[in-house]
Amino acid sequence: MNAVKCPSCGNLNSLGENFCLQCGAGLSASAQVSLSPEQHARAFGMNSGAMFIDAERGRRVFFWYRIYCGMMAAMYAVLIAFGVFMLVAGSWSSGKDAAEVVIGGGVYAILGGVFFLIFAVALFLPRKPWTWIYHIVLICIGMTSCCLLPFSIPLLINWLKPETKAFFGRN
Fold first, then answer.
1. What is the pLDDT of residue 89?
2. How crowded is residue 170: how many other Cβ atoms within 10 Å of its Cβ?
3. What CA–CA distance (Å, rounded) separates 151 from 10?
4. What is the rounded distance in angstroms from the CA atom of residue 94 to the CA atom of residue 97?
5. pLDDT of 126-148, one tens digit each?
6. Which segments in the chain show pLDDT lower than 70?
7. CA quadruple 104, 139, 124, 126: dihedral sign
8. 3-state SS of the chain?
9. How far apart are CA 66 and CA 36, in angstroms?
């Protein structure tokens, strides 16, 4: 098992960390150390009988999840643009349908903005145990659309695997 040793305080951090969890100092790949499974378990507070899983699958799933979030954020940005277009088009026209177009455009723009922010924030969240839950909720939001089911179901299946949970520090 590998870890990164902090040059400032000597704390052992997992490989995916960019900053020391104890003192906040920047970590470099050159400070990587090799640990036995027992040393790794002691350093990261796990029992020594725990099964250690390579995080490569977790990295791949997280990569595809970020692509999913980027595409969803782009889709909601288009929805915002469509809502603004409807607002402008509704204000130009007159008649009883103009109010419906303006209200519809406002709903599209507001909901698109909310969901755009939710998915855009997910792209920049750190890899922590609590963010695993945030991300799984976003995958489930994608499952509400029939068009997104072919993307959401495989992502959800891989998200629930122990390798991905371990990648986020969930046991």
1. 83
2. 14
3. 42
4. 7
5. 888 889 999 999 999 999 999 99
6. 1-2, 16, 29-55, 171
7. positive
8. CEEEECCCCCCEECCCCCECCCCCCECCHHHEEECCHHHHHHHCCCCCCCCCCCCHHHHHHHHHHHHHHHHHHHHHHHHHHHHHHHHHHHHHCCCHHHHHHHHHHHHHHHHHHHHHHHHHHHCCCCCCHHHHHHHHHHHHHHCCCHHHHHHHHHHHHHHCCHHHHHHCCCC
9. 32
- The label of the residue with tokens 């250690």 reads 52
Indicate the pairing of strand 12-13 with strand 32-34: unpaired
> How many Cβ atoms are within 10 Å of 63's Cβ, its own excluded?
10
β-partners of residue 128 are none
Type of residue found at 111: L
